[in-house]
Amino acid sequence: MAIKQPKIGWIGAGRMGYEMALRLAKAGCDLTVYNRTRAKAEPLAKYGAKIATRVTELAGCDVVFCMVSTYADVKEVVAGKSGLLSQAKKAAKGITAGKRSAPRILVECSSISLEGSAELREILAAHGTELLAAPVSGNAKVIKAGKLSFVCSGPRAVFDEVSPLLKLIAPAASYVGEGELARIVKICHNVFLGIVIQSLCEITVLAQKAGVPRHAFLDFINQSVMGSVFSRYKTPALVNLDFKVTFTPALLRKDIDLGLDAGRRFEVPMPLASITRDLIQSMIGNGMTEQDFATLLLQQARSSGIELKPENVPVSDGLA
What is the DSSP secondary structure assignment for residue 103, as one 8-state letter? Predict the structure, then answer.
């Protein structure tokens, strides 16, 4: 007897959401995608996805993924006046007259606070929907290279159920426990991201001002014990000054703010995070808002009295 394929809904077809949903569509999943700007989702139709006009069309799905920018966006698209749950009845386990009016499971992949995630879990529970918090590490290019990773928290049984879907999107999915623990892991991850890119920019500018070409310096770093997937991935941007956006300075600032809030809550001093947050704020204040957060390199160079030019050297991003 054939196993019934789950109905999957997807909310959000931005840079990340589109590529994640694309992997499910290419895998032949029964997928329906909603995006506030419908045109951004429509290219997924040629891979077999259905495109929803209203998010309520996803209410009858077994599992719905959500990938948007902020908690305000999450709350609006899930619990807003015209949101995913707007036609569901509370305390009805999501079922009305034999027809599901709320999904069984919401897999929420955005970077949001612990408090927002806990509130979302409570809202969903009132409609019989279980929440798996599942933020990710990576960006659109990382997704294309098949190297995205999830960190997940919530009921273990829910994680086990959706794991086959997660593996269609990313090779790695770490389960860290109940409740909102995945959120603090993601916040810590992105605080580290900000500190590492600032540190990498500082030493790269120091080496260049001393006379070392950026590509030569980063080639050494990437082959040393200090090299990483991240340092290799950012090398083309730092060498050739191609700052096509993968993650904006404003979004990085938001996540570092979440980290600093968590530090105050748990009484953990975070001096490096605090300094990095101020540097990102300075960059934003100077109008460096529309390109990738790696433009921190340009700010560091100007603070060091030099103007950088692209080296126009072919370098690997390590993702191939």
Answer: -
Q: Is residue 94 within 8 Å of residue 126, measured between CB atoms? A: no
> Cα separation of 228 and 226, whole Å?
7
Single-letter code of the amino acid located at 280: I
Contact between 55 and 100 under an 8 Å Cβ cutoff? The reply is no
Is the full-model pTM beyond 0.85? yes
Distance CA 252, CA 268 (A): 20
CATH architecture of 7-179: 3-Layer(aba) Sandwich (3.40)
Token pair 């409740």 is at which residue?
179
Composition of the chain by helix, strand, coil, percent to 5:
50, 15, 35
pLDDT in tens, 185-194: 999 999 999 9
The two tokens of residue 180 are 């909102």
Cβ-contact 31, 49 below 8 angstroms:
yes
- Give burial (CB, 10 Å; 0-12/13-18/19+) of 187: buried
**Cα 266 to Cα 268: distance, rounded to the nearest angstrom:** 6
Place of tokens 């707007």: 86
Per-residue pLDDT tens for 295-319?
999 999 999 999 999 999 999 999 9
Token readout for 203 is: 């030493």
Is the predicted pLDDT of residue 212 greater than 90, yes or no?
yes
In the chain, what are the domain boundaries? Answer: 7-179, 185-303
CA angle 142, 143, 144 (to 5 degrees): 90
Residue 67's pLDDT band, with cuts at 50, 70 and 90, is: very high
First to last CA, the chain: 40
Query: Which of 3.30.70.360, 1.10.1040.10, 1.20.1540.10, 1.20.1250.20 is the CATH number of 185-303?
Result: 1.10.1040.10
Task: Give the CB-side neighbour count of residue 181, counting CA atoms within 13 A.
Answer: 12
User: Over the stretch 85-129, which tens digit does the pLDDT of each residue have?
Assistant: 998 865 444 444 446 689 999 999 998 999 999 999 999 999 999
Beta-bridged to residue 174, according to DSSP, are: 151
